[in-house]
Specification:
Number of domains: 2
Strand content: 15-25%
Distance between the termini: 40 Å
Number of strands: 10
Radius of gyration: 21 Å
CATH topology of the largest domain: D-Maltodextrin-Binding Protein, domain 2
CATH class of the largest domain: Alpha Beta
CATH superfamily of the largest domain: Bordetella uptake gene, domain 1
Largest sheet: 8 strands, mixed
C-alpha cells in the first residue's frame, strides 16, 4: 500500500476553514451558514477551487445534476466549485484522473454504478474500492426509449421482434457502464438478442437514436423530458420498482413480466487516502447543499430526479451490496472477471472487442 500523501498545515487549514460553513459552526441572523473571517481568508482567490470531475459529456444527467450540485456547494462553502468533463473509455478516463489526484479534497469524482460495472466488464482495472465514497446524492430509474416511428409500440413487441430477428435491433450503450448492463440483463432474462452499439454518453445515444443510427436506447427521465425532440421518441418501459410520477403512462419492466429493476445512483468520491476530517466536512457540505432551495427546484422540479442522500458509511454499505449483485449478474451474463483482481475473462475481452455482451450457446 502506498504511503498516504501528507498535506501541508497551511493547505489543510485552508480546506477545513472553507468547509467549516457546511457544518453550521457559524450562522447568520436567518440561520443560514456564513463564512467566518478565517473562512473568508481560506477561500481567497489564491486557494484552489474544488473540481468535480464528470466522466461523461456535457448535457447528460450526471453533468446537469453535478453542475446544479456545484452551484449549491459553492453557496454552502463560500469557495469556488467547478465541474470538469473528462470523457472517454466508458467514463474510466475521468475516473482515473481522480484516482491519481492529490488526496486533499480539491478533486472529486461524480460517479454511479459504472465504477462497479466497468470493473466487472473488464473496461477498468480499478473499482469503487479504490476511492473514498463521500455521499450518495441522486437516484433515477432508466427509461427504455425508441423512435416514435419505430414499429414497436410496446416493450413486449420489441422483445418479440428481437427474439425472432436476433442481432438486428441496434441498442445504444456505453460499454462497461450501467447502460451496458441493463440491455445485457434484459437479454439474459428474456432470450431476446440486440446488437449493442457503443456511445460515450446519454447525449450521444439520444442523438444517434434521433438520427436513426440505432433503434433503442436508455436514459433517465430528466434527459427524456428536457429533450426538445422528445415528441419524436416513445418510452416503452421504465426500469424502476414502480411507475415514475413524471411518466405515469410508462409501464415498468416488471409489469411486462421481466423481473429487472435498474436505477442509476449518482454520488461523489474522493481519491483514496483523503484525510478523515476532510471527508467528514465534504459529507456535511453535500448534506447542506441538497437542502438548498435552488437545488431542490432544479433537481426535483426541472430535472425530475429523486434526491437520495446517504452518508459515507451508509453509502459504502450500499456500494458493497450493489457490488455483490453486479458480480453475480456479470457471472450469469458471461463477462465477469474470474480469479484475481485485474484479470479479464474471455467473455469480457470479447464484449470489448466485438461490442457484444452475451455469448451464444454455440460459442
Amino acid at each position: 500500500m502506498s504511503e498516504p500523501v501528507r498535506l501541508s498545515r497551511r493547505r489543510m487549514l485552508y480546506l477545513l476553514a472553507g468547509l467549516a460553513a457546511a457544518s453550521g459552526c457559524r450562522h447568520g441572523v436567518g440561520g443560514g451558514p456564513t463564512v467566518s473571517r478565517a473562512g473568508a481568508e481560506a477561500v481567497a482567490p489564491s486557494e484552489p477551487a474544488i473540481t468535480i470531475v464528470v466522466p461523461w459529456a456535457p448535457g447528460g444527467a450526471s453533468d446537469l445534476l453535478m453542475r446544479t450540485t456545484a452551484d449549491a456547494l459553492q453557496r454552502v462553502l463560500g469557495q469556488p466549485v467547478v465541474v470538469q468533463n473528462v470523457t472517454g473509455a466508458g467514463g474510466t478516463i475521468g475516473a482515473r484522473q481522480v484516482l491519481t489526484a492529490p488526496p486533499d479534497g480539491h478533486t472529486l469524482l461524480a460517479a454511479h454504478e459504472s465504477l462497479i460495472t466497468a470493473y466487472y466488464t473488464g473496461i477498468a482495472v480499478f473499482s469503487w474500492r479504490d476511492f473514498e465514497p463521500v455521499a450518495l446524492l441522486f437516484s433515477s430509474p432508466e427509461v427504455i426509449v425508441t423512435r416514435a416511428t419505430a414499429p414497436w409500440r410496446t416493450f413486449d413487441a420489441l422483445i418479440g421482434y428481437a427474439r425472432q430477428q436476433p442481432d438486428v435491433v441496434r441498442w445504444g450503450a456505453t460499454f462497461g457502464s450501467t447502460s451496458h448492463f441493463l440491455p445485457s440483463e434484459i437479454m439474459y432474462r428474456t432470450g431476446a438478442r440486440f446488437r449493442l452499439v457503443g456511445y460515450e454518453g446519454i447525449v450521444e445515444r439520444l442523438n444517434a437514436l434521433l438520427a436513426e443510427q440505432i433503434d433503442v436506447a436508455t436514459c433517465p427521465a430528466a434527459n427524456l423530458l428536457q429533450l426538445p425532440q422528445a415528441e419524436q421518441l416513445r418510452a416503452l418501459a421504465i426500469a424502476g420498482v414502480e411507475r415514475d410520477q413524471t411518466l405515469t403512462d410508462v409501464p415498468t419492466l416488471r409489469e411486462y413480466g421481466v423481473d429487472v429493476t435498474f436505477t442509476t445512483n449518482r454520488g461523489l468520491f474522493a481519491p483514496r487516502g483523503t484525510p478523515e476530517a476532510v471527508l467528514q466536512r465534504l459529507e456535511q457540505a453535500v448534506e447542506r447543499a441538497l437542502g438548498d432551495p435552488e437545488l431542490l427546484q432544479r433537481v426535483q422540479g426541472e430535472l425530475h430526479t429523486h434526491i437520495h442522500f446517504l452518508r459515507r458509511a451508509e453509502y459504502r454499505a450500499q456500494l458493497e451490496r450493489w457490488d455483490s449483485t453486479t458480480h453475480l449478474l456479470a457471472e450469469q451474463i458471461g463477462f465477469a472477471r474470474a480469479g484475481r483482481r485485474g484479470h479479464v475473462g474471455r467473455a469480457g475481452r470479447a464484449s470489448q472487442r466485438e461490442g457484444r455482451c452475451c455469448p451464444t450457446e454455440s460459442e
